[in-house]
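Journal club side-thread
Mid-discussion, someone asked how the predicted structure for our own chain would compare to the paper's figures. Pasting it here so we can look after the session.
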Amino acid sequence: MRATITKYYEFEAAHQLQHHLGPDGSPGKCSRPHGHTYRLEVQIEGEVRYDPSGSDHEFVMDFYDLGQIVKSRIVDRLDHRNLNDELPFRTTAENLAVWIFGDLSVAGELPIKQIRLWETSTGSVIVTRDQFEHLAYEALLRSKYQKAVGDGS
């Protein structure tokens, strides 16, 4: 039997989206340093294990083990930090969600089904496994194209 489990996490972090413009073309609110209470939902999907002698009998994964991985790989790295100082990309919620998905699914070796990152109490972004795999494929194609055509000189 397959099942999906979900666990929630919160962390506080600051960031700044340089060059963000408001509706009138003036610098937008996000162009100034500001912070959020992020809420992260991590869903993993897998087979329910059947091993009566094991401690993870009839689990997809022990919630404690999932929590340890997400806490060490994501929460501890970002909590009470300036995301602009910690990450090498523009720290939009979308980019952050993709990065979290990749970090947990590749480095953490978790069978991620989807993650949802809440930047505010009313605004979130969802990244699914299919979306992530599509993004990874597009990045691979861009990389191969850039190598094939060179730098254009």
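Post-session note: The helical segments are 63-78, 83-86, 93-107, 129-149.
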